[in-house]
UniProtKB/TrEMBL annotation:
InterPro entries: CMP_dCMP_dom, Cytidine_deaminase-like, DHFR-like_dom_sf, Eubact_RibD, NADAR, RibD_C, RibDG_C, Riboflavin_Biosynth_HTPR. GO terms for molecular function: 5-amino-6-(5-phosphoribosylamino)uracil reductase activity; diaminohydroxyphosphoribosylaminopyrimidine deaminase activity; hydrolase activity, hydrolyzing N-glycosyl compounds; NADP binding. PANTHER family: 2,5-DIAMINO-6-RIBOSYLAMINO-4(3H)-PYRIMIDINONE 5'-PHOSPHATE REDUCTASE, DIHYDROFOLATE REDUCTASE FAMILY PROTEIN (AFU_ORTHOLOGUE AFUA_8G06820). Pathway: Cofactor biosynthesis; riboflavin biosynthesis; 5-amino-6-(D-ribitylamino)uracil from GTP: step 3/4. Its EC number is 1.1.1.193. It comes from the Eukaryota. Keywords: Glycosidase, Hydrolase, Multifunctional enzyme, NADP, Oxidoreductase. This is 5-amino-6-(5-phosphoribosylamino)uracil reductase.
Amino acid sequence: MALSFFTPPPIFCRLTAATATSRSSHGNCTHALEANFVRLAADLSDKSAGLTSPHPYFGCVIATPSGNVVGEGYLYAQGTKSAEVQAVEAAGIDVCRGATAYLNMEPGDCHGDHTAVSALVQAGIARVVVGMRHPLQHLRGNAVLALRSQGVRVDVLGEDLLSKAVEEAQRSCRLVNAHLIYRAASQVPFSVLKYAITLDGKIAASSGHAEWISSKISRHRVSELRRRCDAVIVGGNTVRRDNPRLTARHGGGHMPMRIVMSQTLNLPQEANLWDISEVPTIVVTQKGARRSFQKHLASKGVEVVEFDFLNPRDVMEYFYDRGYLAILWECGGTLAASAISSGVIHKVYAFVAPKIIGGRNAPSPVGELGMVEMSQALDLIDVSYEQVGPDMLVSGFLQPIPDLTPVMPSIDETSAIDHTITPCEPNVIFFYKAWDPYGAFSNFSPHPIRMLDENGDYATWSSVEHFYQAHKFVGVDNPRAQAYVEEIRSAKSPEEAARLGRLVQRRHPDLVRTNWESIRINVMYRALKCKFSVYPHLNSMLLSTVGSVLVKASPHDLFWGRGREGEGLNYLGRLLMRLRSEFLGEHSCSSESESYPHDIRNTQ
């Protein structure tokens, strides 16, 4: 069983097609049976965990009126074939007519992309049962309304269907997308604290030696958990004492960003985390700390982010702005206590090994919290126990899963639920992630483009990001460069294309076009122009922003985005405004053209 944020209640078993068939012979589907179908969709959706990140998990199950499961599907990543399309294709159009589709979560299509809803409508699905509405407010209810407007009956668990079994299925749907729900409600990434302790509660010997407390089987499970996260965070003590790599060592798949949190930057000159050949590292620190060491890290390609006052809450709010959904904390007791006190830890995984090491000064997993009585102790919620080899895994939530009562707040209230739609000045429009209200402006949005290649032939790219990353290596007289171009073109998602392109650029700078720095703006502009030319709804969306400044709200990208304090160049926003002017025929408009450097004003 894979380690997951999604821990099924023991009273509920996974439904198979055979189980559905045998139970359906006793009559129409009951609420309990329908809840099980939704639970099956939640199980399916969890299969995408660790393959690409970040994105929500979607699953779809199609069942006939007699209760036979005829089609299943789950979303690999945003921009790939939707779970609904896969399930319809697996079942076949003829079988789908009059059938019911069960979804763990309401579809959340990027602007203008309605393939999930269209697949169900065109297949003749008569009814859709939705486990939960989308947690992001600007997407919540859209797909439900669209399906109902097409004459499809839609039942939402907890609203249209009510029973004990329905409540359990709802919980399964919330758990599988816990990272998205917590992020939307708390405006910080979903954070999991993980540690391994001896039976007497120690994470290391008095000497500091900690290799290994838990078993090899438990360490394998930790690697699985890492692959489900966008980043892994440790403190300076862990770097100095353990020199970790923080990679998902067992097998391939997504590898999370490594984050080191250190106030003084009292860190070793050489460390495994400074090797970014496989995965990047970010060091967060207090402003002004060891400038010379910051330069040393920068020379190795390690990103350094300074804070006026370094604390877990501000750090997590920063990574929220960067779009992270889930972060795994593998830190020592001091930082763990600070994170818990800051209210940013949502769940705990504790691996308890059947060992006793003793030691008055041996460290514990959580430092001082200021509690003097047992009545002050923090109680875990929804506690689960599982034996993992010789160890015991105890897990539970420190904070309850946020309530998803189906109330539609006004625009003034939405900022309390989803920071991405906080009202801003009407003359500034911020965009960043593809799921944001103006997410279609992102080069990661799932809109394929066809572009002429260097041979004069048309080639299809799954997104602007695919095209941009591949063109770092186009035209290089080296078979390996051409192989990487095709590998990036074939990447299943924009996130994977970006990771691959950046990784190859770091590992093999000799394969990057020698003129890349001077042409990359034009490469991006060509792809954007194609995208906004061939999709009428995107063109209309861009033109609807006339009079507004477009800003990529990336806090870390100082070239394409605005940066944390507005110090970035915002080239993506500027290119979109340039393109908007071109579409409007305002080439002579000096108010915009003067804000562009010479090399993009003259772009053909």
